[in-house]
Amino acid sequence: RGPQQVWFMNADGSDQRLFSRSKDLVNSTPAWSPDGKVILFTQLPSNNFPRLMAAAQEDDEYSEFPVTQSSNPMRDARYSPNSAWLAFESWQWAQSGDHDIYIMSSSGVNLQQVTNDPAFDFQPVWRPASPSP
Question: How many Cβ atoms are within 10 Å of 3's Cβ, its own excluded?
Fold first, then answer.
C-alpha cells in the first residue's frame, strides 16, 4: 500500500490526475475553496498529529503550505461560503481527548472554539447562505 494522496478525475472516473505530491505522507478529506482556486486537505505527518494544508489548483506547478503554524492537531476543514472562515475538527488540549469543532479565519488566525462536548464532534459543514429576497 502506497501513500494516500488527493487525485482529480472526471465524474465517470476518466482522466485521473495526481494532485497532492507529499511523498509518503497521508493526505485526505479534500475541500475546494468556493472560488475553486484552492484545495484544503488534512495531512498526517509521521508524528500522527493531523494538520491542515492548502494548495492552489494550477496545472503546471504544485506548492502546498500549512494553513496555520499551530502545533495543535486539526483536520477535516471546510471553507465558509464567503471563503472568510474555516471550520474544522481539533483537540486543542490533547490531554482531555475531546474532539471539538473550531473556526478560524482562512488566513489561519482568530481561532475560536464552537463546541465543547465530551463526545467527539467532527466533520463540520457550513449552512449555505439564504437566497436574497
Answer: 12
Task: Decide: 38 and 60 in contact? Cβ < 8 Å.
Answer: no
Q: Which three cell numbers stand for residue 12?
A: 465517470
DSSP sequence for 1-30:
------EE--TTS-S-EE----TTSEEEEE
HSE toward the beta carbon, residue 30, CA cutoff 13 A: 19
- pTM for the model stands at 0.84
pLDDT, averaged in runs of 10, over the chain (133 residues):
79 91 86 92 86 84 87 92 94 72 93 88 86 69
Look at residues 70, 78, 75 and name the one whose alpha carbon lies nearest to residue 99. 75
